[in-house]
Write a structure and sequence with these properties.
The protein is elongated. Helix 1 (about 10-25) crosses helix 4 (about 50-70), helix 5 (about 75-95) crosses helix 6 (about 95-105) and helix 5 crosses helix 8 (about 125-135). It has 11 helices and no strands. By secondary structure, it is an all-alpha fold.
């Protein structure tokens, strides 16, 4: 039985993720990862068995990486939602290859995290109920507000990353902010609180 390779599994996955971010998913192979690690392909094969096992592990690793990027630091629901939105925009502009892989299903059957990742982030943080209370609207209206904002943000960023439209980071964030404001108004939210929170966040 061959001895256990000295290169750990996480190091291989990190190298693969870096290649994905730099060069795109189609350029990530056992061979290119081995070259990045200055190694033979044996450690990759030992840990993952074959290309199918390797790609599944990479998908999980990439989703986990993106989830960490989307995790808000603030305990305040409104601030947390703003942080998630800004992080989503930053992934699109800083790591478009990763964005395409995760959110445009470039990973095919291996990576199906896509839009559900953002909704899960909301549910995990209990944002909808907290935002409902903060803006004096029902939970259903709060969920509509959050979902509509995410749908708009996702569509906008997909168009930008796909090259359908041109926009810089700041312009994209302003468009999302304006849509967010409109969706909250549509939901019957307390706009005075929205603007006060908005001014507070700008000072941070």
């Amino acid at each position: 039985m061959p001895s256990r390779p000295k290169i750990p599994k996480d190091m291989i996955l990190q190298a693969a993720l870096e290649l994905l971010i730099e060069n795109g998913y189609s350029n990530v192979t056992i061979k290119t990862v081995a070259e990045r690690l200055d190694s033979s392909t044996q450690p990759v094969s030992w840990h993952f068995g074959n290309m199918d096992g390797f790609r599944k592990a990479l998908a999980e690793y990439a989703v986990s990486y993106a989830n960490e990027k989307l995790k808000p630091l603030s305990r305040n629901a409104v601030s947390a939602f703003s942080e998630i939105g800004n992080a989503y925009v930053d992934i699109a502009f800083d790591m478009p290859n990763l964005f395409r892989y995760l959110y445009l299903n470039e990973g095919s059957n291996y990576c199906m995290g896509t839009f559900e990742m953002l909704l899960e982030a909301i549910n995990n943080q209990n944002l909808s109920s907290e935002i409902a209370a903060f803006f004096n609207i029902s939970n259903d209206k709060a969920l509509d507000y959050l979902t509509n904002t995410i749908l708009y943000s996702h569509g906008l960023l997909v168009a930008i990353v796909s090259g359908v439209m041109k926009s810089d980071r700041q312009d994209a964030k302003e468009k999302i902010h304006n849509a967010c404001s409109a969706f909250l108004l549509q939901a019957g939210g307390d706009m005075d609180k929205f603007h006060k929170t908005e001014n507070y966040l700008k000072k941070q």
